[in-house]
Structures are given as structure tokens and as C-alpha cells.
Amino acid sequence: MITAHKIVLDPNPAQENYFARACGTARFAYNWALAEWNRQYKAGERPSEAALRRQLNSLKDDAFPWMREVTKNAPQQAIKNLGTAFKNYFADLKKPKRQRRFRHPQFKKKGKHDSFRADNGADKDHPNAVEVDDKRVKLPVIGWVKMRESLRFVGKIKSAVVSRTADRWFVSLTVEIEHTPPNRENQAVVGVDLGIKALATLSDDTPAVENPKALRRNLKKLKRLSRSLSRKVKGSANRRKAKCKLARLHARIANIRNDVMHKLTTDLVTRFDVIGVEDLNVRGMMANGRLARAVADVGMFEFGRQLVYKAAMTGARVVMADRWFASSKTCSDCGHVQTGLTLSDREWSCVECGVIHDRDRNAAINLMNFAASSAVTACGEMLWGRRRGCGTIVAVDQPMERPMKRDDLSRSLVAFDQASTLVAVVELGLRSWLVAGLVPSLTRQPLKKLRSDPDALLGLLLRWRDQATKAGGRIKRMVVAFEAGRDGFWLARWLRARGIEAHVIHPTSIPVSREHRRAKTDRLDTGLLMRAVLGWLRGEPKHCSMAAIPTIAEEDSRRPNREREKLVGEQTRAINRIKSTLVRFGIRAFKIKLRQASKHLEELRGPEGEPLPPNTMAELRRDLARLQIIRAQITEIERARLERLKRVPCQGTNPMIRMLTKVMGIGIETADVLVHEALTRQLRDQRAVARYGGLTGSPDESGIKRRERGLARAGNARVRRSMIQLAWRWLMYQKTSALAQWYQARTAGAKSGLRKAMIVALARKLLIDLWRYVTIGKVPPGAVLRPAT
Fold first, then answer.
1. Which of 49, 114, 193, 401 is catalytic?
2. Rounded to two decimals, what is the model's pTM?
3. Is residue 360 annotated as part of the catalytic site, yes or no?
4. SS (H, E, C) 671-730
């Protein structure tokens, strides 16, 4: 790991003169190279920093002989910095305009960011050009220079950058050290809400961190010194003294701000394992003329930068919520989103549950809850301050800010020590279970067949652990995995309650052989499961995926709408059976859905004028009686659901259901299905939402063949059916919404086949918008809500 330590220098006048000449040489080389780069670019040539360095080396003996008086690293490194600046600039041009951070390199001015760099080992004749001896540092040409403190790190010194701030000189020593993140026993989670009045408000009971307001408290003195500088004659000694005083004050303001930031971020990564923060729109806040100075005085970007790189060094994790996450407006008790809050509302009362919230503390608690539910890693880079959906940024072992990863249960996040981990996979059967184990310190891989009894499985695991201990091993972790199937998740919950780490494998995520008649036995299946689980434990992707294990309450909450779905299917089959029976006798106009339908069977006559035969009459009476029972059960389920929503409107998933029903076109049944089947799951991003709903495509590409096979249908079929139906209703009830207008524009004048294909795209977009609506409170664009009652 490479880290740096910036130390104040205490040079004598001769050394100060050398530093100034070296900085001037570096500045001259940078400006010369920039001018030459622009000239060659306009002439149609292809300039490069390597070519410019060679060109300068060939010219400096004749044209710039004074460059020999300082270290050769100063001009060479300046041109390298110019090459890096152009590289960043050209790479940034490929991004959208609002995401660009680098502009075209500009010429440097004397007195602004004066610095030069000396690399260690750049000269073969002087491999140790930069050395440190207690409170001294050796630099090329000038020799030993005093430092105010000793170097904190022990390791190989890579380079030294000498810079000037006001009238003080600093050296930043880059050191390569061996760094191992410590084992973090503290698993605490905290949410941090940044602000202007209070710098940071934490979700725990600690007092808020006061904002030092360094700029505001020194603003009067800053104005006075600025006026004094403007009145001095340019080039005079008094102007130089006034400029130095003003620079000292600016440095003091920056030091006060950095001191508070460093203390806060160090305390957070030391005390907490997971830290939830919010991606603030700093650029948008700076656009407000009344807030710009106060926002700039806080240093919000610097807080995120320090937090991420310190988390990388200590092994902590930083979870960032999207800037549209309604942390301040969401009630941390019931989940209701309070609309109409302004910046002046520091306290507010929830209209649903009546709880009075402190604005900042409530936001911190919501960020803590978000971090606790999302404190997992996943792929993709995302630097601090970049917008890319509700996601996670995990600081990794790198010297600068790095992406936080999000977890999709496709790999384990815990370090796998095979020498101390007992791994077992279970092939579940109706009457027996086959258990295969990988036991440390045992040469054999045990395989045992048990009766379908969890106590017998637990006893077997404990016996294997004792055998490993007698063989000289030490078991610190026991992992059990099995495929999801008829048995559900009860065994995993039972094992976890007894201290065993249990996982349920998604059955379609395991790659299997495509042979025509591949051998399949329980013994071979356990071997396949063991290989997949070991790859998953090692953190390798594409081996298998684990299913999220729901609680008993979560499973039970899905039963009413699933039972209703089955009953509706039985009702449809019963009606179709009655209709088909009547059609055989030429009767088509009979209204089966009438409550007294059975009493009108005697009056039925076919085209021939004959009544229904007695056996057919008895069959129809039994079918109608069965239909009445099914209807009564459906009505009972719907009535119980409405009573539950009225009795506890702010408990469990009821707030989400109530939010969805406020949207025109969404009823209680659709809202209940979407909430319990999809929206309450911890889905990673909008792509995961669409995949879970089975609304993504399934391309078939091989060689020159490029075609689409239609819907993947790999997700939740209930969600898919509900969304397709809701998409058609959306076109009826939300004609002015952005999604409906998008659909009408894409299908204007098209055939019916395209309309059916595009309704799937509409359903996918609508599901994502509803997911954002219930998670962060963002209403679908142009959607009409029902008036409050």
C-alpha cells in the first residue's frame, strides 16, 4: 500500500532560495511544454509528454542552462503532470457534460500552487536521492533539510513533493508500506447526516458535531486583509507582506476545516463497521446564492473523500444512498414520506403516526436503516459524488477513494479459511437426507445418509467437528448449504438459530452438464453442490447464487394473495366447466354469476325445448355450490385484508400498500401482490428489479445469428402477470403520464404486434418507477394521485 505524510519543513535561507528556483523551473517547464503541445496540435502533429521531455533535454543545455542548477526531476515531472492532465481531459470529453470534472490544462502562475517533485531511485547513480533520518530529509542537490516532525510510516520512500503554502514549505513523502486491514470485531452501524448548522448528526445518541464555520468566523478579518492588499503598490515590499498575511489566513481557515474533518472521519471508521451517508448534490446547493458560501465552508466533498480512503485502510464499509433518497422527509418510525417540508422546518410531526422528529436526527436514522439493509458489496465502480442510483460504495484496500460494491448473493463476503471451516451440503429427500462434508484435518471426505430429521443433522455436524478437533484442527465456522425446493426455508432458519451458518442455493444458478443422458444420483449431486458452494465461499462469481432466507412473518404475509390467486383460478375453471356443460345443450345466455343461479336451472330450456337431464342438473348444482364456496372464501380474504389495513395502517408493509393505492389505476389487490412479491425485497438496482419481475429479454446470439426469443420469464411469474395487466390499465387511467405518452409515441401507427411487444417495455419501466416510488418517495413523472380522504 502506498501512503503519504505531509510534514512542515524548517529550511534555511539558502534552502528556501533553492526551493523557489526549483518550483520556478518546474513551472517554466510545464508552461513551455503546454505552449509547445498547443503549437504542435494546431500544426496537425500528435504531441506526447515523452516526446516533449526528450525535446526539452536536447534544448536546455543551450537555451535554458539554469535548469542544471536544480534537480532534473523538477522539469521532467512537470511535463509528466501535463501529460496526465491531457489524458484526464480527453477521457472526460467522452462523458456527458454534467459529469465532466477536468478542463483543458491552463498555464501556471507564479505564487499559486508552487511545487516540485523528486523521485527516489530515478537516477541510477543516486538510488537513494530521498532519505529520512529522524527529523531530517535528504533532497537531491540541496542535501539535508530539517523537518518539524518525524516520518510516521516505516517503509520504502518512493518520492518527495516540496510545496509552498503562504510562507511555509512542506514536504509530502510517499511511502510504500505493508498494510493489512485489522480484524473488525465491532459490527455497529451508523447513519451520518451532513448539514450546515451542525456539521454531522449521527443516528446514535452522541451529540451532533458542531460546524467550525472557519470562513464565516474569519470573514471580517479576511475582508480587511483583502482591502489592505488591494491598496498596496504592486511590486513593493509592503504588498508582498500583505499578500503573505492574507495567504496565512486562508491557510488557517483551511487547516481548521481539515482538522475537524480528519477527527470526525477517523472517529467514524474507528467506532463503526458500516457507515451510511448520502450523496448530496453539492453543485446544486452551490447554485443557491444564499447558501453557496455556507455550503463551501462545510467541505462536504472532502468529508466523503477522507471517509472512503480511511475506510479502505481500516476495513470499514461506507454505504451511500442516492441523492433522491428522502432521508429527511421519511418518518423513521412508520415509513411515511412527509411532503412539503422546507429547509426552515427543523422539527416536524408525522401525519400518520404522530411522532415528532428532529430533521437531522431522523435523516441520520433513515440512513442507518438503509446502510444496515444494504451493507453488502457488488460490482461496478462508483466514486464519491457520482450519481448512479441507490447503491453502495465499499472502500477497498487502495490509497484513494474506490467503489463500494453491492451484493447480489452471488458470492460470499466473509473471508474463507478452509483450514478452520467445516462445510457440509445436504441433498434433501422426502424420507432421507444425504450429507456430504469437507472437514479440515481429515483426509477423507465423509458422506452420510440420514433420516429426515434436523436433530440428526445437527448431531452429525457436531460429531464431525469433534473428529476434526481430535485430529489437531480447530473449527471456527460451520457452513451448511442445500438447494431450495419443496422443504422451503425452515431448515435454514432452524440451523441459524443454533449457531450454524446456513445458506439456501438457488437451484437454477448451478451449472450442470448438457450431456444427453447424464448420470444423476444423490452422490453426484452432493459433489456438484460441494464444488459450487466452495467457489461461492471463496468469493468467486458465477459458481452459484444464494436465495434470501425470509422470516416466518415474511413468508406468512405472502399467503393471502397467493391463496386468492389459486381460488381465482379455481373459480375460473368452475365457471368454464359450467359453461361448457350448458353449451353442449345449446344454452349460451345463462348468467352463471347470479347469486340465485341454481334456482333458475329448472327454467332452462334448450333449442329443442327440452329441460336439462337429471344427472346434468345434479352436476350443475354441485358445480354452482362449489362456485359459491370459492366466492365466499375470496370475499373473506379480501375483507380480512381491508380490516388489517384499517386496523394497523403503519405496521409492516401496510404503508407501502397504501402508497401504491394512492396512484390512479392501482387497486388493493395489485398493490398487495407487488409489495409482498417484489417491492419489499432487497433488490440491488433497477436492473435487478426488472430481472426479478421476469420482464427482461432473452437474446440468442451465435456467429451471425442475432435474434430475440422474447421474455426471459426467469423471475416471479406473479409479478410479471400483474405488471402486464397494470401496464394496460396505466394507459387507461394515466394518459397524461410520461410513460403513457412514451408508449403512445413509440406505437403511433404501428401494428398490434408492436403494441404487444412495447407493453412489456412499458411494464418494465413502470415496475422500476413504482420501486423508486415506494423506496425513495419519487412519484412516477406525470402520474395522477388520488385525492386525500
1. 193
2. 0.50
3. yes
4. HHHHHHHHHCCCCCCHHHHHHHCCCCEEEEEECCEEEEEEECCCCCHHHHHHHHHHHHHH
